[in-house]
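Schema walk-through. Below, the input block comes first and the output block second. Nothing else is stored per chain. Lengths vary across the set, and this one has 71 residues.
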Amino acid sequence: KAEKLTLIDQLYAGGLTGMFVVKSDKVKKTHTGQVSEIGLKEITIKSSKKYHLIQIDDILDISMIVEQDDE
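--- output ---
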């Protein structure tokens, strides 16, 4: 859980995009977006279309999305 919180903090502080795999009603869902708020038990992720309120305990996996600069 400590690794999960550290990565959430890094994504939030850097304004970086993450991909979050979340369990919801026994189904895995994937949300991609930026962490806009951090609470004690939940985070808010802003995707391109809406905000998602996610319980930290429901997060199964977090990946950092590396954006390529076109030069």
